[in-house]
Amino acid sequence: MATDARSERRSEVPYYLLNFERALAWLAARYDDLLDDEEHAFLQTFATLPQASRALLVRMLMRKGMLFRASRLVYDEIGCPLRAVLPMAAHRWIDTEPALSVDDLFALSTRAQLLDMFAEAIARIPGAKALRKADLLETLRAFYQTASGDAHASPSRPLSAWHGATTDRVLRVAIAPLCDRLRLMFFGNLHQDWSEFVLADLGVFQYEKVAFGTSSRAFQQRADVDVYLALHACREALEWLPVDHDVSVLHELIATVRSIDTANAWLEMRRAKLLFRIGRDCERRAQWDSALAVYEACAWPDARHRRMRVLERSERYGEALALASQADVAPGSEEEAQRVARMLPRLRRKCGVPVPRAPAARTVERGTLVLAKPDTPVAVEYVVRDHLSSDAAPVHYVENALINSLFGLLCWEPVFAALPGAFFHPFQREPADLHAPDFHARRATQFAACFAQLDSGAYRETILRHLRDKAGMQSPFVFWGLLTPELVALALDCLPAAHLKLWFERWLRDIRGNRSGLPDLIRFWPAERRYELIEVKGPGDRLQDNQVRWLAYCVQHGMPVRVVDVRWAGQEPQSEADVATPAAAERVA
Hints:
29 helices, globular, single chain, EC 3.1.4.1, 3 domains, alpha+beta, three-stranded antiparallel β-sheet, disordered C terminus, disordered N terminus, six-stranded mixed β-sheet, 589 residues
């Protein structure tokens, strides 16, 4: 009976295998023209393999890495992994005798297994047996390099050659790079994996059902996939560069990234972001000429500001001033305008140019609150919230979450509009073009219809309907963990529609730059149908640039906002400048 039950369980198609086969069918329907002969052969051959073999491959693809001990691949629905692997080994999808380095063995083995495996070498190294696993790895690396006479050599051999007494086997998923390429084509990125199906099936993540057709896909030509993978490889190379690396290695990486050519706007933006990160790495190493060359070839929004900074650090003040003056006339964003406004006076002084008087800045109310320091560590925002809150005027810690969520609930339809290039698989949290310059323009009519509801009053019903009907669905704007029907109702009662419209309009001008920086707390007076925003700063904390910009915007439009500096009772401020009174005001550009 037990044997029959196990056989019956094995005959059932595992959910993860069904999901993987769904993905392959999706790819076959949408990407047939982009697949090469090897990929076509994989799709066709995979379906002919025994179920246990298919299930084992998917199990390995869903786990991290390409190397696995057979003893750790024991699943009831698969049975013996060495038997299941044979058909795949025949197709060279799985290598059953891969060459393994010392590092590979340490990643695959417990400390006890390593002491047994390397017993002979460890016996020749005083004190090695007592070392921690990480230290033992370094010691054995050095041992084998010394033995070979090559400081960079690392022996590589099958597990049986390392450990003749073992009955275990190590399997390498040779087909993994091809499957990663298919995964990229399906998801449009490499940070999502096949577990997305499982998480969705279990209800951990819920996604909006977007009505896209069979032509919806992330890549329109095979070269785009190649470009994505090339950029990804360069990004990983940058992340793994040692601190003391040879400068030539970084220069080679720069040359590689600059040589990658694409007409795809989305991929070009990824390339620009990577160049920007490389430029920042050059700056950290004080390689000013390299940083400047990278930024000059970079279209990432912050690159022009970094060019100014590099020119200034290189004492090329005239060039820095000229570039800053151009940006002052036509800033690319509020963030750049803010930074340039700080730089210009300094650069003008260094160039001997008169510094004009700065225009009078708007002010935001700022005061100090002296409170007893909690006995246990707790966020200062919660301390202020609890101190200020009352039945008549409740205070909530919301930071960016509440107003972002109201925007997401009102504008659900335009955010999830099935436009070309926006959605191409069932597991997207947000449209692929969310941060593209034309995100708003492509949906201008739909956003205008949503904003018109703020004028007519219909927005309340739309927000509450989406709060109910879309509950828990993934969204780039909605923070379900914070939202309650009571909080949303309170916000809709106390936040004027005109203020919501102003906030939402600012977001659409620069989603990347403006989605954060809102004040920490919101205070409601339900009986009076009004509110105020409160930014909390603990001892020694300062306003960040994005917070200053939001405060200035709120002040400009007459929104109730203030900054509260917290000082713990009994702790003297560092200077008189640290003390503010409730009547004090802070200038915001």
